[in-house]
Amino acid sequence: MVLEQVTVGFVRGAHGVTGEFRVESASGEFEHILVLREVTLRGSGEQKIFKVEYVKPADSTLYMKLADIDSPDEVRKYNRWEIVVPRKYAAPLNKNEWYIDDLKQCSLVYFDEDKDGLKDKSASAVKVGTVTDVLEGGGGYLFEVSISENCSLLSKDIRYTASGKSRSVFVPFNYEHIRNVDVKRKEIELMHLWILE
């Protein structure tokens, strides 16, 4: 399932006293944000639609002013919230690029190794978890993964915390650990089980 709205940026603090704020682009691209006329701010389990008064470029960033946000205090309410728009207004994707919103809720699957220690692609993929979020880490992006409670490949102490709750782990989103991202099928292949320990 492809979502109709995607995150194009993040509110990153007030700029001046009029309610203008700095925008961090989710893709590193800015052109598509400069022409927006309406955005949804999403965060803290809420979302709110705003008319865009203006967007202006600055040194490697953008400044945005939305209707009804008229002071630094009002900007603080939305600091770190996502800027969400219909997919048609998002930056176009290149090969091996995905919208973060499309990666969320993908199943993380693993192909068991055959007797020679090689991946057995003829076997069925085993779901080991679900991507619940994508976060920026120091060296790149990380998948936050909720471990599957009924995965027979993982021991109970890996699937659950000491208190018996389902575990979540962070998996680096790089070629060493992740392959074959298929957002249409909502599946991402995990290369090594040990990263879940």
Automatic annotation (TrEMBL):
Q: Domain description from the entry?
A: The PRC barrel domain binds ribosomal protein uS19.
One example GO MF annotation: ribosome binding
Q: Which GO cellular component does the record give, naming just one?
A: cytoplasm
Highest rank taxon of the organism: Bacteria
Q: Tell me yes or no: is Chaperone among this UniProt entry's keywords.
A: yes
Its biological purpose: An accessory protein needed during the final step in the assembly of 30S ribosomal subunit, possibly for assembly of the head region. Essential for efficient processing of 16S rRNA. May be needed both before and after RbfA during the maturation of 16S rRNA. It has affinity for free ribosomal 30S subunits but not for 70S ribosomes.
SUPFAM superfamilies, per database record: Translation proteins
Sorted keywords for this record are:
Chaperone, Cytoplasm, Ribosome biogenesis, rRNA processing
What protein family is recorded?
Answer: Belongs to the RimM family.
Query: Which spans of this chain does the record mark as coiled coil?
Result: none
Name assigned to this protein = Ribosome maturation factor RimM
**Ranges of residues in domain Ribosome maturation factor RimM PRC barrel:** 117-192
What residue stretches are annotated with the RimM N-terminal domain?
Answer: 8-88
A Gene Ontology biological process noted in the UniProt record is: ribosomal small subunit biogenesis
Chief location of this protein within or outside the cell: cytoplasm
Which InterPro entries did the record assign? PRC_RimM (IPR056792), RimM (IPR011961), RimM_N (IPR002676), RimM_N_sf (IPR036976), Transl_B-barrel_sf (IPR009000)
Q: Which HAMAP family match?
A: Ribosome_mat_RimM (MF_00014)
Quaternary structure, per UniProt, is: Binds ribosomal protein uS19.
